[in-house]
Design brief:
The structure holds 2 protein chains of 2 kinds. Chain A has helices at about 15-30, 40-45, 65-75, 90-100, 110-145, 145-155, 160-170, 175-185, 190-200, and strands at about 10, 30-35, 50-55, 80-85, 105. By secondary structure, chain A is α/β, with parallel strands linked by helices. In chain A, strands 2-1-3-4-5 form a 5-stranded parallel sheet, with helices on both faces. In chain A, helix 6 (about 145-155) crosses helix 8, helix 6 (about 145-155) packs across helix 9 and helix 7 packs across helix 8. Chain B contains 15 helices and 20 strands. In chain B, strand 4 and strand 5 (about 100) form a beta hairpin. The mean pLDDT of chain B is about 85. The chains are: A alpha/beta, B alpha+beta.
């Protein structure tokens, strides 16, 4: 993956040997890893611009892995998490996956499994960040729409016919068509279907 | 003729002329050497004019000497009787005393007249009269002598003293008692010595019975015993009435398994001059087994030969049984201590497995790094070297953990060795890493480097630290927390280990009971951990106690005496 070069893998494990081994292992596949002995140390660090993921021992002294994950979510930090544990604890694994973990690995971890999980996590991070920039662009475009245009867009993406929109807004069908054309142009939407997807991404309130 | 006899001689001469006879009389002649010769002289005339006189002269020297001797003998006897340290007297059947020595009269203050006719009774102790009278009647009937001990009152101070009275009858030809001879000897001092001896013997016998210690003395050259105390008979179940037992009799009472040893000791005893003690068992006829301890010592004469062997034999059955009981208890305690370790390890099995997995996991990752690096065209030697060293460290750590687990699981009698306290804490900390992580407990070690070593059983001390740390972790299992283990050297020169947590703290009402067996506040707990820990610490001469922390949690302290240098 091309973007892997600038990616960062964070490792939190209280065991120095494990930290060192993980860093060494990730280095062999060209990944830069930063390791922390405790969650507290990690939380004090600002996350970098590029994609990153977190390898987290689910059992940590002081603060458990799940606590760390929750804390990150609360802070709005969208970092994919790979949990590792010394033993396969099914309820814990389920809990971790439900809260959005990428992977749940059991020690001793096969190198390939770890690398695969990291790649997956980084891809997810990248997708997330791409999605985010897409949404930002859409939001910008959406910001250029007039109030009337937003009304028309809202009704159009809800799948309403032009004449129904016209009667609902108390305007002519032609006027509606003009507004719709302006919306499509401003939003760079090729089709009403694409406009609908954009509305979804923007999480616009449905009008139905 | 001596001059004093001249007048008498003249008188006799006239008598003869007048009466014609001289009745025999004694006089003396002088020898030529001047010594005197006693003679008996008599004369008679046969005619009217007394012209013819027949006279006889008998030399009385021999007779005189015999009489003199008799008188002297009589005096000697009287002197002897009057001066001997005894009282004597003669009693006639009519109750009169023709003779009583002056000692009697002086001692009793009774004259002969006052002694006569039962008068003597008033100086005899009232308690002693009946027996005396009874013996006297019997002796009179049998015409035999008798003796009797009785108390007589001394006139001087009114004190009664013991006398030995010996009375013998004297009979005429027909067997009638003519008189009695009696001698009374003062035996007060002997009697007192006898009583003192009897008392001291009684005390000794009492002491022997109380201590179950018999004493004896034997001939070193034969099977013969010189002396055997009552307690010795009792211990060996022998009957005193059967007479002095031989050495062999004793040996027959010895337990068959110990007999050869005792026989050898007995033989050796004849030659050996050193004091010796040995223990063996006795098997009595009823099957009772007794444990005894014999202590013997040779008695030497001036030339250093063994002339007698004296010894004691002590019944130590109770002590032996108590010892066996103690030994049993000690074993039971060791088992309990071991059981506590094993059950703790059992409860921690899952956690210990993680503990081993941790270094194995690191080693596996490093191995994969090595493989990856080796597959490259140009091997990164420094990186390979780092990864391999890390692998070795991890493998050693895994092995150490397994060793710790194994030594904690192994049973064994407590050892006394030099133990480095900080190592004990570090090893247990290594074992409990995962346990702490599981409950989100962070462990902090604050070990002073100058903490001296202690002497004791390493595994047991590890067990104490493990119990305390596990308790601390469990006290924090609700919300996690911080566990601090410290070691230090106190001002008093003791080694102090403290384990403090930020958990639930000590139970308020039962603070005093936490060290008691079966006391537990946990849902799953034997309640033995602290009781066993305290017993271990105390067996190391130390103390274990707990205090509540000002904020949250509790601190447990283990104080141990530092190792005292052997050469000091």
């Amino acid at each position: 993956m091309s973007s892997s070069a600038s990616a960062t893998v964070f490792v939190i494990d209280d065991d120095a040997e494990i930290r060192a081994a993980m860093q060494r292992l990730l280095k062999t596949v060209g990944l830069h890893a930063e390791a922390f002995a405790s969650a507290k140390d990690f939380l004090q660090r600002n996350l970098p611009e590029g994609p990153s993921c977190l390898i987290l021992d689910i059992r940590l002294p002081g603060m458990s892995g799940l606590d760390v994950q929750r804390k990150l979510a609360e802070a709005g930090t969208m970092i994919p998490v790979i949990f590792v544990t010394a033993h396969a604890d099914v309820p814990l694994a389920v809990k971790a996956m439900k809260s959005g973990a990428v992977e749940f690995l059991t020690k001793p971890i096969r190198g390939q499994d770890l690398v695969d999980a990291v790649q997956q996590a980084l891809a997810r991070a990248e997708a997330t960040s791409r999605e985010r920039s897409d949404i930002a662009a859409l939001q910008e475009q959406y910001g250029t729409l007039t109030a009337r245009e937003r009304e028309v867009m809202g009704l159009v993406v809800s799948g309403m016919q032009t004449k129904n929109v016209a009667s609902m807004l108390g305007m002519s069908e032609i006027t509606v068509a003009v507004h719709r054309g302006r919306v499509m142009r401003k939003m760079h939407a090729a089709s009403p279907v694409e406009l609908g997807r954009m509305a979804e991404k923007l999480n616009l309130p449905s009008i139905k | 003729m001596p001059p004093e006899w001249r007048d008498a001689d003249e008188r006799y001469r006239q008598d003869v002329r007048k009466t014609g006879r001289v009745p025999p009389f004694e006089k003396e002649y002088l020898r030529n050497d001047g010594s005197r010769v006693p003679i008996l002289l008599g004369a008679v005339s046969f005619d009217e004019d007394q012209s013819q006189v027949v006279a006889f002269v008998l030399d009385l020297t021999e007779r005189k000497q015999a009489g003199e001797a008799l008188r002297r003998t009589e005096k000697e006897l009287r002197d002897l009787v009057e001066n001997m340290p005894a009282m004597a007297g003669v009693l006639l059947p009519d109750g009169s005393h023709p003779y009583l020595t002056k000692q009697w009269q002086e001692y009793t203050g009774l004259s002969v007249a006052k002694t006569d006719l039962e008068g003597w009774r008033r100086v005899v102790h009232p308690e002693d009269i009946d027996l005396y009278a009874q013996k006297f009647r019997a002796a009179a009937a049998a015409r035999k002598p008798f003796d009797n001990e009785l108390r007589l009152r001394r006139a001087a101070d009114g004190e009664y003293r013991w006398f030995l009275v010996r009375i013998s009858p004297l009979c005429d030809g027909r067997g009638n008692i003519v008189k009695w001879h009696g001698v009374m000897t003062d035996i007060e001092d002997r009697k007192r010595a006898e009583q003192a001896l009897k008392r001291s013997e009684a005390y000794l016998a009492e002491a022997q019975e109380l201590t179950k210690t018999g004493s004896w003395a034997r001939d070193p050259h034969s099977e013969r015993l010189f002396y055997c105390s009552d307690e010795t008979y009792r211990i060996f179940g022998l009957d005193k009435a059967e007479g002095m037992p031989s050495i062999e009799t004793f040996i027959q009472r010895v337990h068959p398994d110990d007999r050869a040893m005792v026989r050898a000791q007995s033989l050796q005893g004849a030659r050996e001059k050193a004091e010796r003690a040995f223990e063996y068992r006795i098997l009595l006829a009823d099957g009772t087994v007794k444990h005894v301890r014999t202590l013997r010592r040779a008695v030497l004469n001036d030339s250093g030969e063994v002339v007698e062997v004296v010894g004691t034999t002590m019944d130590i059955t109770e002590r032996k049984l108590a010892e066996q009981e103690r030994e049993k208890l000690r074993k039971l305690e060791a088992e309990l201590v071991h059981m506590n370790r094993v059950s703790t390890m059992g409860e921690m099995a899952a956690s210990l497995a993680h503990e081993v997995k941790q270094p194995i996991s690191a080693a596996v990752m490093n191995a994969e790094v090595c493989l990856e690096l080796l597959q490259r065209d140009r091997a990164d030697i420094p990186e390979l070297s780092d990864a391999t060293s890390a692998m070795l460290r991890s493998a050693k750590r895994a092995a150490d953990i397994i060793d710790s687990v194994r030594s904690l699981s192994r049973p064994g009698t407590p050892k006394r060795e030099v133990v480095v306290v900080n190592d004990v804490i570090r090893e247990i900390d290594a074992l409990l890493q995962n346990q702490a992580r599981q409950y989100s407990v962070s462990v902090q070690l604050q070990l002073e480097e100058n903490v001296p070593c202690v002497v004791g059983d390493r595994v047991q001390l590890q067990q104490v630290v493990m119990n305390l740390m596990l308790n601390a972790i469990e006290a924090m299992n609700d919300a996690g927390g911080e566990l601090v283990v410290k070691s230090e050297l106190t001002d008093g020169g003791h080694v102090l280990i403290s384990v403090s947590d930020t958990g639930v703290g000590l139970p308020k009402e039962n603070e005093g009971h936490i060290f008691e067996a079966f006391f537990t506040t946990k849902s799953q707990g034997s309640g033995m951990g602290l009781a066993i820990s305290r017993s271990i610490v105390e067996s190391h001469g130390g103390r274990l106690w707990a205090t509540g922390n000002p904020g949250r949690g509790a601190t447990f302290y283990v104080q141990l005496p530092r190792q005292v240098s052997e050469t000091a």
